[in-house]
Amino acid sequence: MHTQTLKLRTPYLIFLGEEARPTYAKTGKGIADWRPELCVGQLRLSDDALDLKLADMPVAAAAEAGVGSLIVGTALVGGSIPEHWLDTLCSAAAAGIDIVAGLHTRLDSIAVLRDAAAAGHSRLIDVRIPPKNLPVASGKKRSGKRLLTVGTDCALGKKYTALQLERDMRSAGYSVDFRASGQTGIMIAGTGIPIDCVVADFISGAAEMLSPDNDPEHWDVIEGQGSIYHPGYAAVSHGLLIGSQADAFVTCHAAGRTHIEGWEDYLLPSIGEVIERTIAIGSLTNPGIRCVGISVNTRSIAHENREDYLAQLSAKYGLPCVDPMIDGTSAIIHQLP
Amino acid sequence: MHTQTLKLRTPYLIFLGEEARPTYAKTGKGIADWRPELCVGQLRLSDDALDLKLADMPVAAAAEAGVGSLIVGTALVGGSIPEHWLDTLCSAAAAGIDIVAGLHTRLDSIAVLRDAAAAGHSRLIDVRIPPKNLPVASGKKRSGKRLLTVGTDCALGKKYTALQLERDMRSAGYSVDFRASGQTGIMIAGTGIPIDCVVADFISGAAEMLSPDNDPEHWDVIEGQGSIYHPGYAAVSHGLLIGSQADAFVTCHAAGRTHIEGWEDYLLPSIGEVIERTIAIGSLTNPGIRCVGISVNTRSIAHENREDYLAQLSAKYGLPCVDPMIDGTSAIIHQLP
């Protein structure tokens, strides 16, 4: 049985519809922020739509410019595709441009879009669909080095921490790859596995595939998911941790958060509890696992208190502690084994 | 969104094909052993096939006897359905009998079988397919009590321990239900969720559905899966543990096993390690979780050494320690909170 990992065609045209709210266009913004070299333009259906400071480009111009994929860069409540987008998406597909989305409605469930893609020999790619024929994890040691971002909760910066680590490690001369485990991350990296969409038996097997054998000095920086203390998503976090065989991990936290977001009966675990449990579980497949730093989203902290807050955490845990979006991650990189 | 849990129609006709080897007919044997009152007959395609000591019954007699489901009680290597079985299966489906299987080949992928089921208004039920629209786990406390069987490895008696506990608890006057989380268990119970086939995000949510709110004194005895120390399947075990909100658990072990079966690089965890880690993880959703006993498959131990072996384990951990197939589970039941 052959397992094919997703690989997006570059360069990208970011489709924003008429979405004006940054929160709902964060996928598009994330791609433009982290992979500007892959983005040749944006396609907006209204002048009020968010401007990612990319060239506005209609489908014909994008096809001419050799765009490989049109990426739907918005996330809608409900996650379906508005009827009035279909003209644009169909003309792109018919022009040979792959259509990429991670919405609840599957692209290939829309007949006119299927027809357009068939006519244009383009692909309809749903980044929420994992590859077929994933293996059960073997637990066998792989060559190369791995860092995983873990967290005290969901949605507090595991993806952006991993991306900043990749950027800073590359600048510092490391051979390094960001490995995406969620849909936005996959669109940014152009490849990856949506780990939370994998069937239970194969979660750790998918994690093994996500960071395959590599050169001994090469680092994979793996995007974490959920939290091992999350009452809804802990199984995903456990499976990803065990399959990743991480040599190092960075613990991510949002300053001021006191409860699991959306599960208000559950107190947030402490950073120390997450570190201790991550080492306990991760030791199964990599006895050398250790925490190399703490990454905190400090948005909720007054500017003048930020440094004190980070310094106190750093002293408490004996680890570098940074807001990666403000401080970068050099202090953490110095701790790598 | 409505989520429908599988419910098999009774009584059963156990189909054995020409399978003579007990190991490969263990699903059929399990149903006959644990739910004899639901089995009206067996259907064998050869006189050499395993005899479950049920009445031999061709399809016409089974239909006349009001059989609800024909259950394919064998597991074949590769997991497909032999061509020459199809006449029998089709005639049962056409006679209004549901066909139930848990093989790799899906029943509804076979055109002649689909046609026969349509003609007979019967169902083709694949117990490996979980219900649709499973929720993410809420972590909210449910009423009633729950016991989960956990293990040092796969395939060492978690299902049979749970079934023996159900049987003994019922004899002792408890209100109790066995809750099946795997395909053979589902066929025995007539209902359940194949937890290892659920998409990652919904593992703990499926576990919550599996043992819903109940009377305060009612016990669900939940069939465990895998092991939290298993390099391949730990994520399933974690998610099931967290969603089960177990008040009590029984730790299952196979005497003499030294390594994870099929993962020979991995030493088996000790019973003590499994108890400690199960409490640590299970405390997230039920701080009162505790181990109430140890269940050991003692097949590999000489008869004269069996009692000493169990007594030593019992003394070491301060818990009752039984081989449930020989000793029953009363000693464990006395420990229930």
UniProtKB/TrEMBL annotation, chains A, B:
Source organism, top-level taxon: Bacteria
Q: Which residues form the D-glutamate N-acetyltransferase-like N-terminal domain?
A: 59-130
One Pfam match, given by its short name, reads: DUF1611
Residues in domain D-glutamate N-acetyltransferase-like C-terminal?
A: 136-332
Q: What is this protein called?
A: DUF1611 domain-containing protein
Please report the organism this UniProt entry assigns to the protein: Congregibacter variabilis
